[in-house]
# Entry
Amino acid sequence: MVQTVGTITASVVNPQVQPSSHLYNGSPNRLFMVLDENGGLMVHTGETLEGDHRKFNGIILRVASVIIDGQLHTYALENPNTSYWGYEPGVGVRTYWVTTGSITCSLNQRAEMKGTFHFEAAFEGKEVKISNGVVNLSGYASVADLEF
# Structure
């Protein structure tokens, strides 16, 4: 198993929880970067809350076709490929699907990715905003390794 290492951070505004704003910081053991057989890229990360693996937030970023040349490129983040998973006390984890957003990143042949992202997402009329996202990852994982 090849492990993805690095960091993913972002500012999250989720009015459904208190406090409504927080700094998302992907847990080191919940970082996965997967390149599929069609050239699509998925970054999957989770953030454990209160030391309880059942309470978590998560971000999935998906680019349908990524260019691997080490140069910066901007890609639209589209539904249903990108989402924010938000833990809400008394409710559990809800999936908010992207409504608008983008990622600007570089990916090289050594599986090193650097970039920034932002998006807005919704679930049953409720919205969350993800801004100031920063990705700095290295190493591909396999689809079989994915978990929150």
In short: The longest strand covers residues 92-107. Strands lie at 5-13, 21-25, 31-35, 41-49, 52-63, 73-76, 83-88, 92-107, 112-123, 126-138. Residues 61 and 124 are 21 Å apart (CA to CA). The two ends are 17 Å apart (CA to CA).
